[in-house]
Amino acid sequence: MSEDASAEVERSVEALLFAAAEPLSVGxxxxxxxxxxxxxxxxAGLRARYAGRGVELVCVADxxxxxxxxxxxxxxxxxRQDTRRLSKAAMExxxxxxxxxxxxxxxxxxxxxxxxxxxxxxLLLEIGWxxxxxxxxxPGRPATFGxxxxxxxxxxxxxxxxxxxxxxxxxxxxxxxxxxxxxxxxRPEGAPAADEDPLADGDVxxxxxxxxxxx
Amino acid sequence: MSEDASAEVERSVEALLFAAAEPLSVGxxxxxxxxxxxxxxxxAGLRARYAGRGVELVCVADxxxxxxxxxxxxxxxxxRQDTRRLSKAAMExxxxxxxxxxxxxxxxxxxxxxxxxxxxxxLLLEIGWxxxxxxxxxPGRPATFGxxxxxxxxxxxxxxxxxxxxxxxxxxxxxxxxxxxxxxxxRPEGAPAADEDPLADGDVxxxxxxxxxxx
Amino acid sequence: MxxxxxxxxxxxxxxxxxxAGEALVVDLDGFEGPLHVLLALARSQKVDLLRLSIARxxxxxxxxxxxxxxxxxxxxxxxxxxxxxxxxxxxRLLLPKPERKGEEPPAQxxxxxxxxRLVRLEAVRKACDALHARAQLGRDVFARGDxxxxxxxxxxxxxxxxxxxxTAFVSQRRRAEARRYAxxxxxxxxxxxxxxxxxxxxxxxxxxxxxxxxxAPAPSAAATDAKQRGPSRASYLASTLSxxxxxxxxxxxxxxxxxxxxxxxxxxxxxxxxxxxxE
Lengths: 215, 215, 279
Known about the structure:
The complex is a heterotrimer, with two copies of chain A (215 residues) and one copy of chain C (279 residues). By secondary structure, chain A is α+β, with helices and mostly antiparallel strands. Helix content of chain A is 40%, strand content 13%. In chain A, helix 1 packs across helix 3 (39-50). By secondary structure, chain C is mainly α. Chain C contains eleven helices and four strands; from the N terminus they run αααααβααβαααββα. Helix content of chain C is 52%, strand content 8%. In chain C, helix 1 (10-19) crosses helix 3.
């Protein structure tokens, strides 16, 4: 592709990403551009071009979006939204779900050593950062929770693998579902490792069963 | 002002303009930046930087905003095509116009035996399958309707003479039951009929007179 | 470690923990649960959590719970469960080593498991901080404030086939046909009077069985127009039958039919005396 042509791809991708309200995937972009245009290369070019500028091109949830540079946050007083300050319990629950997913309610409780109030999960589901992923193939078929793309977008993460410290935690065995040595006291719950069934259509777990009844 | 400092002003203005929900004036920008920052120069710098890119900094009513480049407007539109069917009434009206042309509104109603809703003719005219051919040389000089080339193209007809006649209708099994009394498939008139004046320039039929008032 | 296990020194233990740099306010609301308290206490030991002195941690925790109960009446049950379990664990840790295998996991393993849980909770805490420190959308970084929506041009393509056009034409014509009321098309009937008169004239000649169809007048074949043609064949037949049945009733005519829809035969009535004689 000639110099001119690739410049044209770049500015087209720039315009599309700039105009969009939502992050766009390479596929989204390609679908709106003539066939054969090298979107990936254009994105790489744009990333370099915007590096260090007031606006940067970032990858969130495997999609691309222009965002203001983080160090300029202090200027954005007008735009700042009243973000709900999550309680410590909610934030820890979110972190456990993010790092340990798919994770059941009982497993969340095991990590924190304390029961999970129903409102906490409700809140995270309502914000749209957490979703019910499926069901664990274990007695009672408890619902498993995971995070959403909106979670990745909010925290500016390209993917779950980019969760801060996730690699270290995994290496240290901290993300293993089983407690070592069958640690059972004081809360006797060590869910057996089993696979997860994806949530089937219409298989919406009932709150009483899945949030309260299990564990 | 040093090079670094003016670059900082530029990227701050860039971020503010990007994130703002509406265009910002120089005054708006200055109010949100530390005192003494040269907003005008930053804007000039940004204009130059974005010139020819996919996104441009434009001034609208003394306010500044980023807009996608005008030549990329086609990317901001999405063509979506959905197919729909003509209503039964519209299809029948089309058939009458096709076979009986040139035909006035009153004649269409006489053939169908029911009044013609304004929307039906409007729709056919809007689709471009029906046109006003001229005026009947009769009291009130009603507009005459006929089909267009687009109609022939859509139905794959080389000419009006190729409209299927009674034989084809019989072959299609449409006349199997009892043939309607005195069933004749009229030959449509492509050329102006003897009692028809072609539409002269500027002789735009008025709705009330030609679509509704007559008959 | 063992020397600090003195119930009377509880208060000092909490203070010691606080002095160790951990702002350990005795307020249960500040903690999510016993594990969080343990984590806060463990941090005060300033060692790798996996090399923690569990016995010392147990003492610190018991002191904390004691203090909490001193100031408040209600302490959540799980805090007490943890206290009881820690007391048990500590006593087992202090027991001389040789333990019978197979009964319960060795105390050291339980202690390690507890340490692991603390490490895991600590990791979650750190993850929380790391997440919180990230540039969050709407708080630290911002997307386009005035997004240009993609304009959707919906062009609807009309579907229509010649077959549909033909169908529409025919069905419209059929409806027009059904609507048409044509009084001119009324059927002209053969008057009953005429049939009666004609049959009376023919009666003397009807010596033997003659078919009704043969007697009824035929429509004029010469006429081309429907109006000139006069009554239909069916009308001639019906009126002639009707007149014939009247004459049967009067005793002047006889009629017979072998079966339904078969030909109807008529003849002049035979005289009654002859009939009687015959019987």
